[in-house]
Design brief:
cell membrane, 17 helices, MFS_dom, Growth Hormone, Chain: A, MFS transporter, 441 residues, mainly alpha, single chain, transmembrane transporter activity, transmembrane helix, 76% helix
């Protein structure tokens, strides 16, 4: 009898690179604060979605929560990027974080007083998203000043861990908190967790932008747009991300999917959203090989196409649910189609992993190829794309689902993503040939 075959040992360099923590204590504190605050922010995002659906029983109203914050977020992101290129970035981030804290505190106070309304949920969500876009743009512009360039892919992968933790644990925890304690406690938990962000920001050194300072205003914005016109690689990664988030972001439909299609109510909403983050978390955890890839443009394209394929599979799962496959006698908030929920979670986990791999490459390209004097403004545009794409996606998903069926947006959207990305990347050989060893915007 032959000896049992030995399984290959997983190499240490397959795991995430943790060197940024030892190189920069300031980066470490900022990462911890951002992770915990992001976890709290996810509690509020999911709770607001569930709250609006409970008050209106309308999927389109849920999607409009995201859309309502789109214009304020775009304006704030662009202006916040200009502020980050003109003033101390630590101060800009602290002021914006204070606005986010105040809006969340008011949301909790209204819920405790029992006087919350759909209008208040819309307004405070818009304020929250606008302030967060400034915080995000400024923090992204700060990171390259805290770490050497060769560790920026590792920092981006650690950001994937942050996203994984906050989106994986946050929605599931939000579903449980809303179901068992109510909305007031859920919003209050966000208020408490957000205090950690101030610790990370407060302990940073002063970070003034390098190079020529341009006063915030139209000329500063034009200056950034002129640079973007001369930066085809950065411009195309924005376009590809908008395509992915517009046609492959069905999160606004999750409350309705959990209520009437897959069953399980708020718990299903939470676990579906958490599955996306679980994929992002695992892809970051095993991101060692990603940091050694130099063809970042090609990596972005392939990752987004995998994202589109997985989105299509999720749509097919919803088709199966619509046809009644594997369904119990009754599908409602108390009775769930467990088999199809598990398959849907797997498909969504793949979308999260693929999106995170794309994000690692996109973030590294942004922070390496863009000069510091432009970094705030370009990060502002980047944040508008990253945060605005899902809101446009919410409008697409909510409108198409209202006109057709809940499964249509994902099934059609995934196919659109695969096709459009293939065509655009084929038409831009410089993007395919992008080399991280010689970053060119």
């Amino acid at each position: 009898m032959s000896a049992p075959r030995r399984l290959p040992r997983l190499r240490r360099d397959h795991f995430i690179d943790l060197r940024p923590f030892s190189v920069s204590p300031a980066f470490t504190r900022l990462w911890i604060g951002s992770t915990l605050a992001g976890l709290g922010g996810q509690l509020t995002i999911v709770a607001v979605m569930l709250h609006v659906y409970e008050l209106t029983q309308d999927t389109f109203a849920v999607s409009m929560v995201a859309v309502a914050g789109l214009v304020p977020m775009i304006v704030a992101g662009l202006y916040g990027g200009m502020l980050a290129d003109a003033f101390d970035r630590r101060t800009v981030a602290l002021l914006a974080a204070s606005v986010t804290f105040a809006s969340t505190l008011l949301l909790a106070a209204l819920a405790w007083a029992g006087i919350e309304s759909v209008a208040w949920l819309f307004v405070l969500s818009a304020i929250n998203s606008a302030a967060n876009s400034i915080v995000g743009a400024t923090k992204s512009a700060i990171t390259p000043r805290l770490l050497p360039r060769d560790l920026l892919p590792a920092a981006a992968a650690l950001q994937g861990i942050t996203v994984g933790i906050m989106v994986m644990a946050g929605p599931a925890l939000a579903g449980v908190l809303v179901a068992f304690t109510g909305y007031a406690w859920t919003y209050t938990a966000d208020v408490l967790l957000m205090t950690t962000l101030f610790l990370g920001l407060w302990t940073l050194p002063g970070i003034r932008p390098e190079g020529e300072i341009v006063r915030p205003g139209l000329e500063s914005l034009r200056d950034g747009m002129r640079f973007l016109r001369r930066a085809p690689n950065i411009r195309l990664q924005y376009i590809l991300d908008i395509i992915a988030m517009t046609f492959g972001h069905p999160i606004a439909l999750f409350p309705a999917i959990g209520a009437v299609l897959l069953g399980g109510g708020p718990i299903t909403t939470g676990v579906l959203t958490a599955s996306i983050a679980a994929g992002a978390f695992l892809s970051s955890l095993f991101s060692g090989p990603i940091g050694r890839v130099r063809r970042h443009g090609l990596g972005i394209a392939r990752a987004i196409q995998v994202f589109g394929i997985a989105t299509t599979v999720f749509g097919l799962v919803l088709v199966a649910a619509q046809l009644g496959w594997f369904a119990p006698a009754t599908v409602d908030t108390a009775h769930a189609n467990v088999i199809l929920i598990a398959v849907a979670m797997l498909a969504l986990a793949v979308t999260g992993a693929a999106d995170n791999v794309s994000a690692i490459y996109r973030s590294t390209m942004m922070q390496s190829a863009v000069p510091d004097t432009m970094r705030g403004r370009l990060q502002g545009v980047f944040m508008v794309v990253v945060a605005g794409g899902p809101r446009v996606g919410a409008l697409y998903a909510g409108t198409l689902a209202t006109l057709t069926a809940l499964w249509v947006p994902s099934l059609v959207g995934g196919l659109i993503i695969v096709g459009l990305v293939g065509v655009l990347v084929r038409l831009h050989p410089r993007f395919r040939a992008y080399d991280a060893a010689n970053p060119q915007p």
